[in-house]
Design a protein that fits this description.
- Helix content is 46%, strand content 12%.
- It has five helices and three strands, in the order αβααββαα.
- The protein has helices spanning 11-23, 28-35, 39-51, 75-86, 91-98, and strands at residues 26-27, 55-60, 63-68.
- It has a three-stranded antiparallel sheet with strand order 1-3-2.
- The chain starts with 10 loop residues before the first helix and ends in a 20-residue tail after the last helix.
Length: 118
Amino acid sequence: MFVLRGILRAESQEKILIYLMVRESGYGKAIAEFYGLSTNSVQKQLARLEEDGVLVSRLIGKLREYQLNPRYPFLAPLKELLKTALNVYPDSMIQKLTMVRSRPRAAGKPIVENRPRT
């Protein structure tokens, strides 16, 4: 789903920005795996967005972590635009974006399926 067509260069940029807005930070490979995109294309878009000043990054060991640039002059309007775009995404994608696991599931723990909203 490419909601911000005409504003951003590529659909992957929209996905990257929404991912970073919701999760606050992320790694190129994790973003690529989340959306099923090639790591190379995500890395290129991350580099472009950082070059344009929209993102900042820092090295953590061998990994580069990205986040929205807090000093970007249009950060507030960009976040509002991304929030509006996110409202068009399916509920399942929004739920998947907001669920963050910091450790693996315990062995033998049952998987609870999502219940429909009432």
